Amino acid sequence: MPTLSLPLSNLLRNKESFKRLIAHFKYLHTRRGIWTVNTSSPWISSSRGPKSALVSWRQVPVGQLTAGDMCTSSSEDKTSWLWSIYNETKQQTQDLIPVISNNFVNPDTIFANNQMSLQDIEIYGFDYDYTLAFYSSHLHTLIFNIARDILIDEHRYPEGLKEYDYMPNFVIRGLHYDVQKALLMKIDAFHYIQLGTVYRGLNPVPEKEVIAMYEGSHVPLEIMSDFYGKSSHGHTMKQFMDIFSLPEMTLLSCVNDYFLKHNIDYEPVHLYKDVKEAIGDVHVRGIMYRAVEADIEKYICYGEQTHAVLRKLSKNGKKMFLITNSPFDFVDRGMNYIVGKDWRDLFDVVIVQADKPGFFNDRRKPFRRVTDKGVLLWDRIHHLEKGQIYKQGNLYEFLRLTGWRGSKVLYFGDHIYSDLADLTLKHGWRTGAIIPELRKEIKIMNTEEYVHTMTWLQALTGLLEQMQVHRDPASQTVIQQWINEREEMRLRTKDIFNAQFGSLFRTYHNPTYFSRRLSRFADIYMPSLSCLLNYDLQHTFYPRRTPLQHESPIWPEQTSTGAMNIPFQSHRTTTGSD
Asked: Which residues form the active site (predicted)?
């Protein structure tokens, strides 16, 4: 079995590494004092007095640093002193790199925002697209090409758009689009635009221009996207939360780019609506569905792992249901490929073309039974029967007919709004978000380059926070050089994920708006359903206790025990005894 991540056990076996790590993290959070490591102290603290402490604290008011810890006879002395502190801090950081580099995170870990035990879950529900079925990059290219051609053939857009091909690494999920200004951007959890990630067409917008347009970098609540990320009722921002939206964002950017390059005057609102309609037609007209069905091996992947998860749940007596917006023929073809022709035997209820998120709120739509050949029946539905296929309906009727309520139900989906938000806020279901991008980002975070850059970035930030009190010109010159270095590293940590928009989860140090919604609406999240294979069905997921800003960080409590690099069998034994 694979190991889970963050090898705290390695640190516990290495006293000196653990001491250095504690000292380093304490130092970064210190405001007005100095932490030092007592290298002669025993591993276990006892009552022998201060000398036995692993880490000791010396209270030094910041105002006294210039008088006691630093020569003040000349500007040259101040400059030399600051650079000596800088070099000492950098050396300490470099000494820690080998230790921190071993703290890799396993991409197959399930992460918890809220404590949840699988022992309490009796019923498992699933979306289909990007939850049970994962698609290759060929699908996004297909959607982009078809929608582009629809714009040209049916909306009379210029033939020159055919020069643009799909760019798989241009955008990321979770971006906001200002419909009236035709700007694509990343916004953080506090509604601030991440400067440097605002794009008009395929080109970045200068920071000064962004600040002038928005009178700063904050986006007021009244123009942000609505609850479901849509631009409606006066909201001018649209948030793209669906994985299927990647080709839509790319097409918007390409058309904007073409118009700008050729000095064509256009109305951004019309462009947005036309692209949205063209992308919708790819789905509604069944063009995408027919293409996937015709060459399913080209477009669908991860089939064996999905099948293994469903078998595991079925073997353990769990009830399962499927609620998807996709049509039955498309789902049936895909599930035959992933699971086999008997896939419906695994599910107690199957609902297609559900029209989520309306399914979770609109009480008016009744269920309608569908035959295997797609014929709609007119009889009233009194029971949701295993082996039958149902269309539309609504969650309130679903709850009445099944009695599946509250925290005994766990539903998985990839769309944080359409799949998860209403279920957790209104109905108390437990929710699991499938975030395929997570696996790639974790692998990047495990690289030596990222670990080295991020560790020094954190250390330098702590140094700046403490040394900013030195306001004389010589000191400020040094500090400005540190600020410039920090900005360069911040850009590097952005570009390492995506050159245009950075990480899906962070805008530099702040969480993204996407991360904020993810933490609110998903009890657990993971790259794919296959991660469930690494846990028994008695497992309890515990969220990491992240220190609040006013709390002292207590390492190792910051480490997610669910992600520790402990052999999996050992992990199971430990959690089973909790």
From this structure: 127 (nucleophile), 129 (proton donor)
